[in-house]
User: What shape does this take?
Amino acid sequence: MQTQEIQIWDVWVPDIGAQGLSFARGRLDATDILLVHAAPEKLNVEVRDDDGSLLAKGTNLPRTVNSPMTRLRRSRDTITREDIWPTEADYGSPVMVAGGEVGMLQKWWNDPGQQEWRWSLEFYNHR
Assistant: This one.
């Protein structure tokens, strides 16, 4: 049986306190794209493999648009940030919420004025 590669995505708020503050740390199947709900104004992100080796990072990534979702994209050893309003193309993408729980985006709706939105995540775990 083939096992899926695991990654740890660690998202920090860099400009709080002496060393920053953890926003979310999630363990998930390897991915190059991770959506983050309600991400802070600025982020530091590190992606590590299950053994702790650093795979990629992004430093002082600023908010790009006032939106409820952020797309973090891994390209080799670099993480970039794009704040988005999800579309159907994002369905099935992993979404990390504050604290580090990761679910899969099932549905998204927002009004044309981007003042309200409704969304659904599916969470799955096993021992």
About this structure: The mean pLDDT is 95.
